[in-house]
Design a protein that fits this description.
alpha/beta, four-stranded mixed sheet, 3 helices, globular
C-alpha cells in the first residue's frame, strides 16, 4: 500500500549544480539535502521544503521536461510569484484549475514547475 510520496526527481544537464542550487535554495527557499556518498558521485542535487523533496539528477542527454512537472503547493501565491519574478524567473498564470490559483515557471535548466494554492 502506498502511504506517501517520498520525492520527485527531475533531470538536469551535467555541470548545472551551481545554477540549480542558486535557484532552488535562493529563489524557491528550499534547503539542500546532502546526498549519500555513493549517490553524490553521480552529481546532481537534492532539495527539501517541509515534507516536499525534489531531486535533480544529472542526465548526459538531458532534455528539459516541458509538460511533465511537479505541482508545488504554496501559501501566499501572489507574494511567491513576485519573489520568482524579482529573481528573473518566468511566471505564467493559469486559471484553468477550479478552486485554485496557480502559475507555471521554469527552473534554470528549463524544467517546468507548477505552483498552486487552494482558494
Amino acid at each position: 500500500m502506498i502511504t506517501a510520496l517520498d520525492h520527485v526527481q527531475l533531470a538536469a544537464p551535467p555541470g548545472s549544480e551551481e545554477r540549480l542550487r542558486a535557484y532552488y535554495v535562493d529563489v524557491l527557499g528550499m534547503t539542500e539535502l546532502p546526498k549519500p556518498p555513493l549517490l553524490a558521485r553521480r552529481g546532481g542535487c537534492w532539495f527539501k521544503a517541509g515534507a516536499v523533496q525534489l531531486h535533480l539528477g544529472i542526465e548526459e542527454d538531458f532534455r528539459a521536461a516541458k509538460k511533465a512537472h511537479p505541482g508545488l503547493r504554496v501559501m501566499g501565491i501572489d507574494a511567491y510569484a513576485a519573489r520568482l519574478e524579482a529573481h528573473g524567473a518566468p511566471v505564467t498564470w493559469d486559471s484553468a484549475l477550479p478552486g485554485h490559483k496557480r502559475f507555471y515557471s521554469q527552473d534554470p535548466v528549463g524544467n517546468r514547475l507548477e505552483f498552486l494554492e487552494p482558494l
